[in-house]
Amino acid sequence: MTDRPSVCVFSPAPLLTITVERALDGRDELHLHPGGQGFWVARMIQALGGDVVLCGPFGGETGGVLRHLLEDAGIRIRAIDMPSANGAYVHDRRDGERRELWEAELDVLGRHELDELYTTTLAEGIGARVCVLTGTHLQEIVEADTYRRLASDLAANGTRVVADLSGPLLASALEGRLHLVKLSDEELAGGGWAAADTIETIRHGIEQLHEAGAANVVVSRADEGSIALLDGRWHEVRAPAMEIVDHRGAGDSMTAALAVATARDLDATETLRLAAAAGAVNVTRHGLGTGRADAIAQLAENVVVTTLAP
């Protein structure tokens, strides 16, 4: 490990996840884990050997539990104290499907807490090679302009900013200029960038994102692979079909791999292979943003990256 982390993760909404599972012997089990997009991205960065620091707000009983769980997971955190509690949800997966039983509402971050989170992320991001901007769980607890300012200030100090955002948060971050944007075809269409029913319409949407401020763009299409514009060249990516245990978290795993590849200065083909493999391995597991570096490296060798015509 280095003294300085290679990747910083902006995580405005860490969550406590509580899940009821059925064990192999038929008994019920209760599982407590950290959650939220920022954590899931950070966990995969760590699995891939990246040095990661997560910047986020923590408060209340749920925040106290989250801090301990993150420390147990070996992820370094820069915690901002806040008066309100972190979000949480309770899911029931005893029948194999995920069913939501309860979810806490999130409070909007106060001005003082937001300023502290911003400054902390800026300091850690400047010290890192890459900073990943992640969103919030369902609710926007920070104003969208925060993403524009953060992307702009980080880029001005030589940090390459990777964003896994959608909607107004993505639109704002693009104004600050981004090194790389990762989103799904559904998010591409939902954000009004372009229809996502063919490769050509997806390429049109990617061009719109590029013109809006994204130097590089990767659009995932579930089991149909990905379309990417990296270093000015177009690519189509296909990973081997895997049996899906839980499709959630594949996108976050791809984002983590893209951040690690950016920090390692991998070329476009290596970057896309690593990202596709990380997403594919994740869907074979129950945990979001999980996987093993050796399995991902092996699977990456079977990922096909095709260069498309301009």
Q: What does this protein structure show overall?
A:
There is one protein chain. Helix 5 (167-175) links the parallel strand 9 and strand 10. Helix 9 (268-282) crosses helix 10. The radius of gyration is 18 Å and the shape is globular. The strands form two sheets. It has a ten-stranded mixed beta sheet, with helices on both faces. The protein has a four-stranded mixed beta sheet with strand order 3-2-6-7. It has helices spanning 37-47, 60-72, 111-127, 145-156, 167-175, 185-190, 199-212, 250-263, 268-282, 293-300, and strands at residues 7-10, 15-22, 28-35, 52-58, 76-81, 87-92, 99-103, 130-134, 160-164, 178-184, 214-220, 226-230, 233-238, 304-307. Residues 1-5 have low confidence and may be disordered. It is α/β, with parallel strands linked by helices.
Q: What fraction strand?
A: 25-35%
Number of helices: 10
Uncertain residue ranges: 1-5
- Determine the structural class based on helices, strands and strand pairing: alpha/beta
Number of strands: 14
Largest sheet composition:
10 strands, mixed
> What is the global morphology?
globular
| Order of the strands making up the biggest sheet | 5-4-1-8-9-10-11-12-13-14
Alpha carbon gap, first and last residue: 41 Å
Q: Work out the radius of gyration.
A: 18 Å
What pattern of helices and strands is seen along the backbone?
A: EEEHEHEEEHEHEHEHHEEEHHHE
> Helix content range of the residues, please?
25-40%
Average pLDDT over all residues: 92
Any chance you could write out the topology, listing elements then pairs?
Blueprint (H helix, E strand, L loop, with lengths): L6 E4 L4 E8 L5 E8 L1 H11 L4 E7 L1 H13 L3 E6 L5 E6 L6 E5 L7 H17 L2 E5 L10 H12 L3 E5 L2 H9 L2 E7 H6 L8 H14 L1 E7 L5 E5 L2 E6 L11 H14 L4 H15 L10 H8 L3 E4 L3
Parallel strand pairs: 1-4, 1-8, 2-6, 4-5, 8-9, 9-10, 10-11
Antiparallel strand pairs: 2-3, 6-7, 11-12, 12-13, 13-14
